[in-house]
Structures are given as structure tokens and as C-alpha cells.
């Protein structure tokens, strides 16, 4: 009733799964439309090009997420056609390359990275022979994009891919780009670069006719295809709905032997595309991972808030400082806290100690407030009869008091260079001698130092020992000034107002929006300490329950101070700058006037006039 051959093709093309039948020689007898869709043989390309092959001088653009994997076995030898001679080019590395085919005079541009060196994406932008080229290998979304003068060519992938675009060397126009099904068409990177002819793309181009071709010619030698052929030749293997990967596409396969009169004549393979299912699963897994990371971040923020409740501020800078403080709490390394006066260095040092495993005292030593003549005996103590007026039984020093705990050396930059030598010895050996004593005392002390000075500058000036600086600068934490984190003013005011009201014995007060905005606009040279003082003054001046702008007494901002006090006549300012510049030049060239006038790029006459005018010898 039906023409069996014609209707067989019609019926198989109506199937919702891919269906492939081969004979016992591996020759394809049936290959339905769904199978062609799955493996990219029926791919509706929107950009067209005629058939052809690569020519000398053509421009080649490559994006390969794993060299040698699903790119036609691309290797370093083939890449030499583009002028790439690099022993770092190895299998499974990531490659982005732009070069000219078989032209040794034009240097290629490329990036080659290990998978471990790239996180979310590898990108390269270049202007090559006047053409704007951008290549992005997006590992998160599994897509490669090659952009040529704003024309985009993209390819999605499952696991591995080698993507290729070729531009005509003469016209600089696209002559070939890869599309889905390039493996079936034999258009892998290595094939094309070795001169194999490629097929046309577009509406009027012919689809690849696979009927009558050997299955290995279309699908290569993957384990599933080898198994398919073995069954067609007589192996007794069959399975239903097993996961298999063919040409890089994840599929669910059913393999059925085909027998006639008890004799094996071939095999059938039913294929279901599960790449979309995998994509949904991957998106779900990514969403769960993001949720997990968000929960972890919330837990970390909650923990930091609980552990460092006295460190007020939710700005990015303060949250980073809290994270550093948590790490510092879990180590015995020396910590150096830097920052302007009033930023909260003492508060942070105490919080680090309180969250550490040290349950002995936190000893705060303000090195700048103790006279130099007394500081040594205060730090290390003194023995009995060490000097006139000494206590009969001697005295413990701060280091001995802090044994098993933490000593906080505040304003360490104020210590004299002589005392710095002894301090260095303590930090190195955790031992010292009392003033006038002969017995070595060993201590287990965690040292936290702080300074509002730039210790590197002090070191260069000779005021601070280099060896001591490197000894205390093991775990540095820098607290930014309040003017650089003004968003923290809200939470600081909210915390400070009730505590100040309680301290001075008055009812709680609130602050008006106008007054708060005034605080936000101020420059805060005195940082948090100045904020606390200004709020206390405002509370005392305020008769009602609300602090208004009239109650805030703020200094002029630095910019305003400059406007009123530091403006000098322009001519005077220029002359002062000119004089300093000439003096610097003379110092640099060690008094060689010829070199100085050459460096300043002025004439001999002008140079000598300036020397005379400014009295420079």
C-alpha cells in the first residue's frame, strides 16, 4: 500500500527523538531530522557565506576553551601556520589567538592560559591590521563570542569547543565561521587550518547529506559510536535510556541491535537531547550555590557584628577592617594599626585582644604620653635599688604585667631610637632585663602597635629603625579617616547620642535631618573623637529633645580655611615656585649650570637672570 522507503523517511522524521540506523559496515541508512537538529546538521545559520577553503594571507581568529578537545585535535604544530611558535601551547590549555595564515611577516596576537588561571571568563581586545577584534570565552554562561568590527559571531557549548572565524586577507570580510554541527561536517579547527574545504552556510546552501556515509565520518571515533558499530557487526550489547556524550552533546541513548533471519544486519540508535535539561540543572545548581554563598555572607556579617559590636560602621571599609581584625584575633602575629588620631585604633586593638584566645590582661601603653626618661622603666620595670628614689622591692613593667595577654603600644612612633633597640630585642626573643636588673625575664606577650604617623617616612628620616618597622609590620591594618567613610556617621551618631546623654545625666535626645546633613558635609579632621566631642557640646547646648544645626559648633572645612588664610598674590606664588624649581635643578645636577638650564629647557640668558633675581648660587 505504501512505498516503504519514502514512508519510512516520513515516519522517522515525525519522531520527537533522534533516530539513526547503520548497516553492519557502519554505513548510515536512516538519519532522521531530529538527529540532524541535535547534532547541528540542520542548523539554520542567519549569516551566510559560500563554500571555500583558507588561503595564504587570510586572517584567522580562534577561541578555544581546551586545546585538543573538540577542535579537530588542534595542536602546536598546526598553530605555526599563524606564526605562533610557543612551547607553552599545550593540550587542554585555553587559547585566544589572532593571526595571519602562512605569513611570517605579521606577528600574531594571542593569550594562552591554564584553566586554573581563569575564573569566569577570558577576554582579549585588539586592533589587528586596522580591524577591531574582541574575543570572549565565557565559562559561566558557556558561550564563545568573536566580534569583528561590531559584527558578532557566537557559539554555545556544553563541555569543550574550538571556535573559528576567518576573514578574507584582501577584503577583510568574513569568509568562514563555525556553526553547530562542525564535527559532523568535518570543519574542526585543525581540519580547516590544514586546508580542508568547508561547506556553504545560509538559506540557499545545501544541507550535509549523511545517508550512505560512514558513521565515523560524521561523528568521529567516540566510545558511543564505536560501540554502535560493534553492535551493528554482531556484538550483543543493548541498553535503554543511558547517558552518553556524542560530539560534545549530552544525550540519553537507547541502542538496539537489528537482526533479520537470525542474522545481524545493523543497529539502531535512538537519541534524546538532554542539553537543555543539563542547562536547567546547571542553572538550578548555580542558584543554590549563590544562595549558599549569600547565606554564608549573612552569617559572616552577623558573626562580625556580634564579635566586634564596639566597632561601629557598616561601610565597605569598616566591614573589611572587621574581617582583618577577625583574622588577626586568630593569630599571635604582631599587628600594626595605622590611622589618623581619633579613628578608633585603641578600640580596634582591644577588640582583637577580646576575640583572641588570650584571657590575660590587655595593657594599653600610650608611648607619647609618658616622658622618655620614664618610658623604659615603665615598659620593662626596674630592679630593687636601680636608681635613687626607686621602690625597695622594685617594680613590674608593662611587658611583665601583660604576660599571657596583649600589650598595646599606642603611638609607637614617639619612642626614641635608643629605646627602639631594646624593644626590638623583646619582640625577637620575648625576653628582657629590668632597668638595673641582671635576671632575664621571659614573657608570652602578644604585641599590637599603633601610630598616627607614616612610619615609612619616619624610617627614611632616620627617626624610626628599619629593623623594628619590619618586625612590627607583620599584620598591618589601616583605619581610613571618617571623611573617607561618611556613611558610617549615621550609625556612629545613633550609637554615640544615648551613651553621651547617659554619661552627662540627661534625657535621650534625637538629631534633626538638617543637623545630620551638616555633619555629613563636614571634613572631620579630628575623626570619630571630634564627632563625639561635637555631639556632647550640642547636647549641652540643646534645651529641648532635638539637636538642630544651631547647636552644632563646627570648625571651617579645610577648603574654607584655605580661602580665607592661605591665598597669596599670584605673581608671588609663581615666583616662589620658580625659585624652588631652579634650586631643585641645581641640587640634582650638583651645581652644573649647563645641565640645569638644559633640564629646565630655558636659554642661558634667562637662566642667569633668574639666578641673579632669586639670589641662587
UniProtKB/TrEMBL annotation:
UniProt keyword terms in alphabetical order: ATP-binding, Coiled coil, DNA-binding, Nucleotide-binding, Transcription, Transcription regulation
InterPro entries the UniProt entry points to: AAA+_ATPase, AAA_lid_NorR, Homeodomain-like_sf, HTH_Fis, P-loop_NTPase, PAS, PAS-like_dom_sf, Sigma_54_int
Name of the protein in question: Transcriptional regulator containing PAS, AAA-type ATPase, and DNA-binding Fis domains
Record carries keyword Coiled coil: yes
Any GO BP: regulation of DNA-templated transcription
Coiled-coil regions listed: 277-304
Source species of the chain: Sporanaerobacter acetigenes DSM 13106
GO terms, molecular function: ATP binding; sequence-specific DNA binding
Segments forming domain PAS: 4-41
Domain of life from the UniProt record: Bacteria
SMART domains, per the entry: AAA
